[in-house]
Each structure stands twice: as structure tokens, then as C-alpha cells.
Design brief:
Length: 233
């Protein structure tokens, strides 16, 4: 247990660094992403003391955010450890890590890249085949449903948040459909819409990244379905 929680913590530490690096090359394929993900950061030569302290403040902020991500992923996986069978641990760890990366990248660049949404979709289908996921027919229908559902959700959200739903959101919703199926995906979308509307009223903004709300709703739905709180699912 502790080793896997530590692994989640270490991956969480990397999330904001990967997200900040992502915008420098915007990979269109997984190979490019893995090849160019890591680099050794350094300060430019000849910085004035004012610029140096500015850079140092930015890096301290990034480190603090990485610690928060690490603690969050470790805490969520600790809950997974007590709520799910051991055969699901690796699958759900990958699920959490991809969701975390999508959240961080979407918050920073308003982008949900195919290099992450497509693996999330394939992982959901694989989980239904070889893990403890839903039946494969429910997974496939959930993925298709995820592509069709945004038409209804945009009708609900657009009066509050103009231009809030993009192509990446549709692909992420389809990927989550492969994990949860049709009915849980509808609950997931409802939770994300409520979260997004609350965020809009709180920040007084009419547009923003929708991916983080989908990711939060996915984690909530994951535990609701497993704990049978939504008994009709």
C-alpha cells in the first residue's frame, strides 16, 4: 500500500512541471511527449537581483503546487486502496495520473490534448476487458454516448458560460464514458456542470477550463458507483 501511495505522490509532484513544460512543444503524439517531457531548468546568465528573486518566487510557487498535487493524488489513492479490489490498483492509478495531467494542462493552456484523452479512452476499454471495469458493451456504448452527450450539456451550460465546451472536452467525456458507461456518465456530467456553474458565480467569469470540473466529477463518480451510493447504477 505505502509503496503505491508513494508512487502516486511522486507522480503528483511531477504534474505541474509536466504541464508547464507541455506548452513549449505541444506534442501531437505520445512518443514526442515522452521524449521532450523532461529538461533541466536553469536561470539565464546575467540576471539582475530583481529578476532573480522573481524567478525564484515562480519556482517556489511551482514547488508548492507540486506538493499539493502529490498530497492530493496520494490521498485519493489511499481511499482507492480501501474501496477497490487489489486488481484495480494499477488501472486506477493510471486513471488518476492522466486526469491530473489533463486538469493541470487545461488550467494552464485551455487545452485537453489528444495525447492524453486517447490513452484515457483506450485505458477505459482495456479496463473493461481485463480489469474490474464495466462490461465491454457498456464501455463502448458509454464512449459513443460521451461523444453525443455534449450537445445536450452545451444547451444547459451555454446560458451561464459562453464558449465553455470544446473539442477536447468532448473527447475527454467520451473517454470517461468508456470507464463509467452511459448512466454514470450522465451523473458525472451533471456534477461537472454544477461544479462549473458554482465556479462561474464564485469567480464572476463566464468562460474557463472545463476539464478540471470533468476530472473532479470523474473522481466523485468513481467512489459513488463503487460504494453503491447511486444504487440504480
Amino acid at each position: 500500500m505505502f509503496i503505491m501511495i508513494l508512487i502516486c505522490f511522486m507522480f503528483g509532484l511531477c504534474v505541474p512541471f509536466v504541464a508547464s513544460r507541455f506548452g513549449k512543444y505541444l506534442p501531437s503524439d505520445l512518443g514526442t511527449a515522452l521524449a521532450q517531457m523532461w529538461h533541466c531548468p536553469h536561470f539565464p546568465h546575467g540576471l539582475s537581483s530583481e529578476h532573480f528573486f522573481c524567478f525564484r518566487k515562480m519556482w517556489l510557487k511551482l514547488i508548492m503546487v507540486s506538493l499539493l498535487w502529490g498530497c492530493f493524488l496520494a490521498s485519493v489513492f489511499a481511499l482507492i486502496y480501501f474501496c477497490f479490489p487489489p486488481s484495480s490498483y494499477i488501472w486506477l492509478m493510471c486513471f488518476l495520473i492522466i486526469l491530473a495531467l489533463l486538469t493541470a494542462i487545461d488550467e494552464r493552456y485551455f487545452l485537453l490534448p489528444d495525447v492524453l484523452t486517447i490513452p484515457l479512452l483506450l485505458l477505459g476499454l482495456a479496463y473493461s476487458l481485463w480489469g474490474n471495469g464495466i462490461p465491454i458493451d457498456a464501455s463502448l456504448s458509454g464512449a459513443i454516448y460521451g461523444y453525443l452527450l455534449p450537445s445536450v450539456s452545451v444547451l444547459i451550460v451555454s446560458p451561464f458560460l459562453k464558449d465553455s465546451f470544446g473539442g477536447g472536452d468532448v473527447k475527454m467525456l467520451a473517454a470517461l464514458g468508456a470507464w463509467f458507461g452511459m448512466i454514470p456518465l450522465s451523473i458525472l456530467l451533471l456534477i461537472s456542470v454544477i461544479s462549473f456553474i458554482c465556479w462561474a458565480f464564485w469567480t464572476k467569469q463566464r468562460a474557463g477550463a472545463y476539464g478540471p470540473h470533468l476530472a473532479l466529477a470523474a473522481v466523485i463518480t468513481l467512489f459513488l458507483t463503487q460504494m453503491r451510493i447511486l444504487t440504480f447504477l
